[in-house]
């Protein structure tokens, strides 16, 4: 008898109503900028009180699905990467994942974005990537500026895929990407290694400019392999001391 009740939805009523409102948004084809029905209408549809509806709407607003404004109906909003950014930043700050885990995720995502960018990039995006490479070369001695430029380089690649989901994935990673970039540069601090990092980006840029999807993916993979290997070596030396 106990097994029959294991799948009961024990969440608060407002959370279950929020799911129903989300389903209604999808079923009625509402788009960003469209208004939801009034609170009174939602109460009638769901058969619940205004307090429950307001809780459900607040829940959806907190998740970044709708916008609430005084004196007007709730409104559907576009995807908001800030919601994920706050989650990721909190996870890194509270040691729920490491920089190595960030690199693993970036490696998988950005190898794909590089290949797709090579197929879909515009001439303007090719020029922007080249400009960012040149600026990165000038900023080698400035870790903060370099990290920002490095992030913008990878964001530009995501934008060049012509797939908004890649942009939505990369944008929230801004702060933890910059953190991983800075940590990676500290693990590759020699002038030779610093120059290699810049050259890695130039190789990626050239492959994308040439429309070489396979070459762009391979260059991105090699870039992350070098960063991951350097970070692993640095962590080992920090723990056990330099290898004689």
Describe this structure in words.
With 244 residues, the chain is mostly helical. It has 2 domains: 2-76, Arc Repressor Mutant, subunit A, CATH 1.10.10; 81-240, Four Helix Bundle (Hemerythrin (Met), subunit A) (Up-down Bundle), CATH 1.20.120. It has 11 helices and 2 strands. Strands 1-2 form a two-stranded antiparallel sheet. Strand 1 (66-67) and strand 2 form a beta hairpin. Helix 10 (191-209) packs antiparallel against helix 11 (213-240). The longest helix is centred in the last third of the chain and has 28 residues, at 213-240. It is elongated, with a radius of gyration of 23 Å. The chain starts with 12 loop residues before the first helix and ends with a helix. Residues 224-244 are annotated as: Disordered. GO terms for molecular function: DNA binding; DNA-binding transcription factor activity. Keywords: DNA-binding, Transcription, Transcription regulation. This is L-lactate utilization operon repressor. InterPro entries: GntR_C, TF_FadR/GntR_C, Tscrpt_reg_HTH_GntR, WH-like_DNA-bd_sf, WH_DNA-bd_sf.
């Amino acid at each position: 008898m106990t097994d029959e009740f294991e799948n009961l939805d024990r969440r608060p009523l407002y959370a279950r109503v929020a799911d129903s409102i989300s389903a209604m948004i999808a079923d009625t084809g509402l788009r960003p900028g469209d208004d939801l029905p009034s609170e009174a209408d939602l109460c009638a549809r769901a058969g619940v009180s205004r307090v429950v509806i307001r809780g459900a709407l607040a829940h959806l607003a907190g998740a970044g699905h709708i916008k609430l404004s005084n004196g007007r109906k709730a409104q559907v909003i576009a995807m908001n990467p800030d919601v994920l950014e706050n989650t990721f930043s909190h996870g890194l700050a509270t040691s729920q994942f490491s920089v190595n885990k960030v690199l693993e995720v970036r490696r998988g995502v950005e190898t794909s974005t590089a290949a797709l960018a090579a197929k879909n990039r515009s001439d303007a995006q090719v020029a922007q990537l080249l400009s960012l490479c040149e600026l990165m070369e000038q900023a080698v001695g400035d870790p903060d500026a370099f990290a920002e430029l490095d992030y913008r380089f990878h964001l530009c690649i995501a934008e060049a895929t012509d797939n908004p989901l890649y942009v939505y994935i990369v944008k929230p990673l801004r702060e933890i990407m910059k953190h991983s970039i800075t940590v990676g540069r500290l693990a590759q601090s020699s002038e030779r290694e610093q120059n290699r990092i810049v050259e890695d980006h130039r190789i990626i840029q050239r492959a994308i400019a040439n429309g070489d999807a396979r070459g762009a993916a391979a260059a991105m993979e090699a870039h992350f392999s070098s960063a991951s290997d350097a970070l692993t070596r640095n962590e080992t030396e920090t723990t056990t001391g330099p290898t004689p």
